[in-house]
């Protein structure tokens, strides 16, 4: 599910009192713009993953404020990632002194990525890897200003080829409430459970 289906499901879960009854919702992809439309009362407590959040640190706040001045909204990971990719491409073109695609691609793989979006590396397969983040949507009382939606629960580190493979996301049956699964996510061998 994504987009409007996800937003409608979150709204319906709030309307039917699922979250108030103790159920945790999780979304693999939800942007601040979608959160802005949902509102904190409907989405509070939702757990989600993001590759970027405008209020994560000083660098992301700086980029977020510049973006907001031009657009009237805070950036999401697609906006920041596109800006980062373009900036990295321009750095590679400048470094090699040509627009030749093979030379630029080689330089992209050599240069570290360290900007307002992320710190990472372009791999030999041309994919950029960086940390991801696990967030929880704040309760309305926790939000201090507009667009202040998430609190950081965990940083999911880059999985380098020398690391062991991540374990699968596991849904386990909760014996005290058989119809309600517990979610266990393990990237480093440690599991976290949400009830």
Describe the structure using short key phrases:
single chain; 195 residues; alpha+beta; four-stranded mixed β-sheet; three-stranded antiparallel β-sheet; disordered C terminus
Q: Count the DSSP helices.
A: 6
The biggest beta sheet is recorded as:
4 strands, mixed
C-alpha geometry: elongated
What's the β-strand tally? Answer: 10
Helix percentage range? 25-40%
User: Average pLDDT value?
Assistant: 83
Radius of gyration: 19 Å
Q: Unreliable stretches, pLDDT < 50, 5 or more residues?
A: 166-174, 176-195
Strand order of the largest sheet: 1-2-6-7
Classify the beta-strand content into a percent band. Answer: 15-25%
Provide the succession of SSEs.
HEHHEHHHEEEEEEEE
Which structural class best describes the helix and strand composition?
alpha+beta
Question: What is the CA–CA distance across the termini?
Answer: 22 Å
Question: How does this structure look, described?
Answer:
This protein is of the alpha+beta class. Helices cover 34% and strands 21% of the residues. A four-stranded mixed beta sheet has the order 1-2-6-7, with no helix packed on it. Strands 3-4-5 form a three-stranded antiparallel beta sheet. Helix 5 crosses helix 6.
């Amino acid at each position: 599910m994504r987009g409007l289906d996800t937003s409608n499901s979150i709204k319906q879960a709030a309307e039917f009192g699922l979250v108030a009854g103790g159920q945790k919702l999780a979304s693999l992809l939800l942007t601040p713009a979608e959160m802005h439309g949902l509102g904190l009362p409907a989405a509070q407590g939702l757990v989600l993953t993001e590759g970027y959040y405008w209020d994560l640190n000083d660098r992301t706040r700086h980029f977020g404020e510049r973006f907001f001045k031009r657009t009237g909204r805070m950036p999401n990971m697609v906006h920041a990632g596109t800006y980062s990719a373009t900036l990295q491409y321009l750095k590679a073109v400048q470094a090699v002194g040509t627009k030749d695609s093979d030379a630029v691609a080689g330089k992209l793989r050599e240069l570290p990525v360290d900007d307002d979006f992320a710190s990472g590396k372009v791999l030999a397969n041309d994919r950029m890897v960086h940390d991801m983040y696990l967030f929880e949507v704040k309760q309305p009382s926790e939000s201090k200003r507009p667009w202040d939606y998430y609190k950081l629960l965990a940083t999911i580190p880059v999985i380098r080829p020398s690391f062991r493979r991540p374990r699968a996301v596991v849904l386990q049956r909760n014996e005290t409430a058989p119809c309600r699964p517990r979610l266990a996510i393990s990237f480093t061998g440690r599991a976290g459970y949400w009830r």
